[in-house]
Specification:
Elements (H helix, E strand, L loop, with lengths): L15 H38 L5 H9 L1 H15 L39 H31 L8 H20 L8 H10 L1 E3 L11 E4 L4 H12 L4 H4 L4 H17 L2 H9 L24
Antiparallel strand pairs: 1-2
Keywords: Membrane, Transmembrane, Transmembrane helix
Main location: membrane
Pfam families: HCO3_cotransp (PF00955)
């Protein structure tokens, strides 16, 4: 791949055709490099996840490597960009620098005397848009909390009323607090929270012979969630460092999450089973109500 050198129109005597061709060449080189780094991070994260499930190295070491696969992948992409692709000027995270953080503006209570000031819009339009946005946020947060509970807990929670407490905090307390302090309203982060909760799931390490591992419980606590929220809030102070992260790292992270999510879907597993000979089928709960092997001729 050719390295896109800095381009100035005067190098070519202001030839419009050459100028356009050079811009296209640069965009193609940047797009190809971004795609390469994204897939490189995807393969690295998948390799670390496979290492976590394997037998190489000590269990604690491979557990740490597999659990921190995404941060390690981000560091890998940043290092690749700084060492090999620095002249490509890849797209980076667009976050404010650390020296522009003004803590005094974090608490900005609204002026309640202007609640009826709708500006150029009508009251019906403003209230209608607010209602639509609130319904969308409610559905996202409700889906996030419900999916986390149904997917990971599976009625294994030992604390009663855990879902009602989460609903009260996320849908009643937080919106009121955000509105009074001038903070942005909370939105759903389903992928991140499901990945976090999946890490707290306790699996049966010694299942019966021929049976897959099953969920026997969950480490029920809110300390790790609080730590994640505090770290996200403190990330505004490292904006200057985050500006070194290429967008390719985010693309690779989303690809990795998508692949890992598809891997655990029952539909995908059944499709994979259909491509196997019936003698290689294993006893699994996903084969319940599935067509019997005797009726399939491969």
């Amino acid at each position: 791949m050719m390295i896109p050198t800095p381009f100035y129109p005067q190098h070519y005597g202001y030839n419009e055709d050459i100028y356009v061709a050079e811009r296209i060449r640069r965009k193609m080189a940047i797009a190809g490099t971004t795609l390469f780094l994204a897939f490189a991070m995807l393969n690295l994260c998948l390799a670390l996840a496979a290492l976590k499930r394997g037998n190489y190295l000590r269990r604690k070491l491979r557990t740490y490597l597999g659990s921190f696969s995404v941060p390690l992948g981000i560091f890998f992409v940043v290092a690749m960009d700084l060492i090999f692709f620095q002249r490509f000027n890849l797209d980076k995270l667009d976050v404010p620098p650390s020296d522009q953080v003004n803590v005094s503006l974090w608490i900005n209570p609204p002026n309640f005397s202007k609640l009826t000031d709708y500006g150029s819009g009508s009251a019906g339009l403003v209230h209608g848009l607010s209602f639509a946005i609130s319904i969308a946020l409610t559905l996202i947060i409700f889906t996030e909390v419900s999916l986390n509970g149904i997917t990971a807990l599976k009625n294994k929670a030992s604390k009663p009323g855990i879902f009602m407490a989460d609903y009260a905090i996320t849908m009643i307390l937080f919106p009121i607090l955000s509105g009074c302090l001038g903070w942005p309203f909370m939105s759903g982060a389903t992928v991140r929270t499901m990945s976090h909760l999946s890490g707290l799931v306790v699996m049966d390490r010694k299942p019966p012979p021929g049976m897959p591992q099953r969920i026997i419980g969950t480490i029920e606590q809110r300390l790790s969630t609080l730590i994640v929220g505090v770290l996200v809030a403190l990330s505004v102070f490292i904006g200057s460092a985050l500006r070194f992260i290429p967008m390719a790292a985010l693309y690779g992270m989303f690809l990795y999450m998508g692949v890992m999510g598809l891997r655990d879907l029952t539909f995908v597993k059944r499709c994979m089973i259909l491509m196997k000979r019936r003698k290689h089928w294993k006893v699994s709960s996903m084969l319940t109500h599935f067509i019997s092997p005797e009726r399939i001729y491969i």
